[in-house]
Design a protein that fits this description.
The protein has 28 helices and 17 strands. By secondary structure, it is an alpha/beta fold. About 5% of the residues have low confidence. GO terms for molecular function: cysteine-type endopeptidase activity; hydrolase activity, acting on ester bonds.
Length: 746
Amino acid sequence: MSSLENAYALLIGVGADLPASVRDAAAIAALLSNPEIAGYKKENIHLLTEEQATRDRILNAFDDLIDKVDENASVILFYSGHGGTYSDNDIIELEQGGKNLKSDHENQSHYYWVPNDFDPKNYRTTWLLATELKEKLQKLQTRRLILMLDCCHAEGMTKAGPDISKSTLKERLKNPEDMMHKIDDGRGMSILSSCRAEELSWIIPKDAPHSLFTKCLLEVLQGTHRDDFNEEYVRMTDVINHIMRKVPEIKSIQRPFVTLQMYDDFILSKNTNKNEPITQVADLNAVPSMSKETDAEIVTSFRENHGVNAALFIHGFSGQAHESFGVIPKLLAQDSQMDGWDLFPIGFSENFTPEMGHDIWASPLDLQKLADNIVSSFRYKFENYKRVALIGHSLGGLAVQQAILEMSPEERERISHVIFMGTPHKGLQINSNNSIEKRASDYDRQGSLITKLRQDWSQAFEERMPFKLANAIGTQDATITIDTAFGVFDPSNDILIEGDHFSMVQPEDTHHDGYQLIIKTLTDSQFAIQYTNKEEINLLLGNYDAVVRELWPDRMELGAKGVRNLLFALEGLDRLDDAIELAENKVEESESLHLFGLLAGRVKRRYLQTMKDADGDLSFKLYKKAYDMAVAENNNDQQYFLAINLAFLSLIHEEYRSMMQKYATLSRKLAQQDPFDSIWKAATIAESSMYLADFEAAKEQYAIAAADAGVREKISMHTNAYLAYTTLKQTTDDEFVRFLKRTFLS
């Protein structure tokens, strides 16, 4: 095999306390330069080991690649050595004595390589930051790149390391996944790490010349990894699949990790195990490409405005991430109901070929790769989002479930919605004579994959799921049927929509069932439906999620203000029963005026949803008890607040207008006597004026209240006003109704 004219490599083995890193880099260099195996030109290979693996030499090697590499070239980047991590506050402590530390939200983590000449006392001039690496990578004209990281060596972990301080800055890199996300330039570069977060890269046996990761890499580059490997060339996916499968087979606690957005499945070497004459290749471009559209852009986001809500679209294995959902993401981005949501695809690019090809079915290894990427992206790439929705199609839905099960209970609380579309939750009844089903044998209903998934899910969510869930299949789906997909979750979550396995996620317009399912699931909170400024409501819902995560675990120890905030947050997230139960428990502990009022309000909300007389009776009773307590305590502002709610219930529930007028008169008089202006004083005067047929005064005071009210307050005011007015006047469309909508809902 003659040299590949347009193939390059930068191979770094830092050495020092990691002698295996030098041997690893040198062995890869020897293999790539061997004309019978890979045939890279020696002048196209940068090998930096020991004293040569300095910061300056590494950066210079990158600059040389930037000068030489064109858009058709391929580049292998290999780094074996230590990595480090630090936070903004680590540097502030070191350089400013800990003054003006950042908040936890602002305190970002950063990553760096540790070159051979790294000096802890002069870290700024001797480390190699991930941001610097990303800048160099972005300057390379080619997108045919693979970066291999072996940064978490078990060897050397107990030896003296490059400590910078007693802070976390001294720590060896324990999180290669986050570093990968920081380096990834979004152009389709594949990044392969020797292990995942909190894992180590092993040498087995201890006296072996190479790390386990490099040993497997050398095997596949020579084509000796499989007896049945008959391809002429070793490509990117061959390398990735072998390493991902073989390493954990040998050492189960080391699991490599790979990004899935591959620009091109380019060749890396020749299969020396193939008993055919060696093809003479003068140029990389002469090698047949496995990729269909290598000029296509890699899409890593549909919309990214750095908000608080993110919707992740996880596709199956029959297409590529950004195309599987058709125009759904585009339509969502144009829909004002989704203002405040960022939209991202997750999954295999078209040029990253799964082991079973682009098919509905996939190997368990590829399913695990997808699940790993969901978890990793959720933890690191999307760590700043307060709410994350996961939408999985086909086997992507199973990957979503595997990913959720790998998350901690605290992480799961950040998930707001989960939508499954055409997902075989229960597996298949495999017929060994059916060739299609034989391909899906790993998904046998009685097989280990499905059985374990269902057991683990049931155990994890035995009490409750912290997210809203929808589970849909297409009415014409011949592959994923009711028997395959339904009967796992609560029946109320199972939904039939128009379409087959693919058309269910390929709409032509917004009237499509699949689109409507997604938009309604993501926005169906009753709190959100009524409010037309969707961005504000979505951002507010994101804050309510954060409130619940913070306060719910210690709910019985909360003070009055904490209970109030938690009750409003639960109500805003449609967890009204939880709110009522909490308020009832708190009332039993302390029969305070404040708690009775809060409980009365939550029961009233439920009454307005269900119109059950029992809730109406209970709410009126609680408001009356609270009102009597306010009178006894001479609490004027609580008296008029409680009286106006008694007026409301007298009209809506008791249907007793004279009692309504009695409480309305009392409420308006008390509110007008309040020396301090507030939104609730104005709203009370407005509502009581409406009950007394003084509609101009009602308009004036409602306008004053709305000017300073937040979303929750506006919706609460509108709920009472609209229902009361339409009951009094027996009309749902006149000038006053339109005034209420303009004032509170736009």
